[in-house]
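Exercise: predict the structure of this protein bound to zinc ion.
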Amino acid sequence: MAKTIGVTVSERIQAGLVVDHRIVGPLHIFPANYDPDSEDEQDALVELPTEGLVRTICDQIVGAAQGATDIQAIGVALPGLVRNGVVEEAPNLPQLKGSRIFELLRNELATRDIQAPVTVLNDADGCAAGLASLHGRLDSVVRVWTLGIGIGYGRYPFAEGVWEGGHTVVSLDDKERYCGCGGRGHMEGIMGHRAMRLRFLDMEPEEVFEAAKLDPSTGHCADHRCLEFKRLWHKALAAGTASAIHIGGAGKFFLTGFNVRFVDLPMLKDYLQQMVKMSPLQSYSMEIVNDDAQTRVIGAAVTAEQAAGL
Ligand SMILES: [Zn+2]
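Solution:
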């Protein structure tokens, strides 16, 4: 029975004790009473300097340990590109860029008498590991698209690489330049929530997808700009997935994040069928799943457990 701790850091920090791939006890959360509509709280972590953020993460780890002295591994999932324990890029927590996060966490935990091995991972990879665990797929390859402010791409099992799949080029149109990274033609530049708000300055993404609906009595859509965008959005997701299939093979793809509400699965599958024609690559499947903190916490813990060879 592996006793581990999983931590996920996004707009807030959530940590839990994970025993045998199940959460035991409550999640420890900072800020505790997080309100996603309050801009102050959205920025609570962004405004912490790196040392303060590391201390706050360790506070939650100590809380989650519930006094246990036999923790075997700790996994910390961060939004950004993490390699060899260094945060190379973190657009949503810019203060972390360049920080030797592995060392900082290990040193801070040592001052609190916690010596368990620490693994730092990308949060989308943690999400993929959590879904693999929950869906009994720890022995197969699982990929996940997280459709939120940006577009995350996670894969399980862990493999060396960059895996910035959300920045897959899916358009050669020079005008496609809404991606948060500044790159042209990226999947996130079409599908990301932030990018959609930049494209439709006069409409929220919810209104765009609502206006793209067909009138059931006439079969027509009142707003062609919105319908065209809905098609583009699904083509971008199909194109990113098709590229992932052509590079890494068919298999299971999960879709999660708050914008899965916009996914029209029949439309997505139709585009994907047009883009993937080699018969050995057609055994893929897509499934929409809820994005919850528990899945990500378990995923971070499972990744740490595997990295520690437990
Ligand atoms: Zn990009």
